[in-house]
């Protein structure tokens, strides 16, 4: 018999049912240990393709591969017990056809055990989202600023700051919801547009640089912990881990150079042999 209390993981349906209720708390994680911490406080853990920039120092998320997502998705599943784990589909793994998307998503779900996937795009991805959902893949959408399109949009600028630009963004959000997504990330849009999309959709909106009126919020963990050197305006820093890590590493380096580490508590003494007679 298991000695640990059985913990039931949240599902995409549980998150879908939270529309208009208590705000959904989401953060990214790419590692087992941070996933364990995030899991105790969040409803959703996103294994975001931002891992390409955060873990690997890439300039954009475009070079991220399916293998990178699967490896970190597995780590996060091992480290968490309760939150819904959503794995991001990387650029190039789902856009060319519905069949390509299903094959990639099925691989991610089988190999990581995650409960849902996320993909970027609005109206042009709606048919694919419907195809996936009808075949058992819970999909979280992502509209507004879609970082995988950086090479066509040209910059990571906020979207919809002029009212004339709202209709296509609203149409994207509606298309994703109508296609059967259980929730949608709305990234870097003007605040009134974020609130308006949230009010219009029947599924939860998860805001990042959008609006407090969204049904939930998400941030990149390393950004809010103060570990990322540059962060967008919408990030609030809840910690300053960069300076603490720097101080710890400097302390270690000084101790090693002074031969004061390892100290007596950090080495193994010989076993004391019982004396004869
Ligand atoms: O990749 C990511 O971390 C994301 C979030 C910023 C929503 O897509």
Overview of this protein structure:
The protein has 277 residues and is α/β, with parallel strands linked by helices. 37% of the residues lie in helices and 13% in strands. The chain has 11 helices and 8 strands. The protein has helices spanning 12-16, 32-39, 51-54, 66-79, 98-112, 126-134, 150-153, 166-178, 191-200, 221-224, 241-257, and strands spanning 24-28, 44-47, 84-88, 116-118, 139-144, 183-187, 205-208, 216-219. Strands 1-2-3-4-5-6-7-8 form an 8-stranded parallel beta barrel, surrounded by 6 helices. Helix 9 (191-200) links the parallel strand 6 (183-187) and strand 7. Helix 2 packs across helix 4 (66-79), helix 4 (66-79) packs parallel to helix 5 (98-112) and helix 5 crosses helix 6 (126-134). It is globular and about 90 Å long. The mean pLDDT is 96. 3-methyl-2-oxobutanoic acid binds at residues 28, 46, 48-50, 88, 185, 187, 208, 218, 220.
In short:
By secondary structure, the protein is of the alpha/beta class. It contains eleven helices and eight strands.
The CA-CA distance between the termini, in Å, is 48 Å
Q: Count the helices. How many?
A: 11
**Percentage of β-strand residues:** 5-15%
Number of strands: 8
Mean pLDDT: 96
Give a list of the ligands: 3-methyl-2-oxobutanoic acid
Question: How big is the Rg?
Answer: 22 Å
Task: Give the strand order of the largest sheet, numbering strands 1, 2, ... along the chain.
Answer: 1-2-3-4-5-6-7-8
Summarize the SSE layout with pairings.
Elements: H1 12-16, E1 24-28, H2 32-39, E2 44-47, H3 51-54, H4 66-79, E3 84-88, H5 98-112, E4 116-118, H6 126-134, E5 139-144, H7 150-153, H8 166-178, E6 183-187, H9 191-200, E7 205-208, E8 216-219, H10 221-224, H11 241-257
Helix pairs in contact: 2-4, 4-5, 5-6
The structure holds 3-methyl-2-oxobutanoic acid.
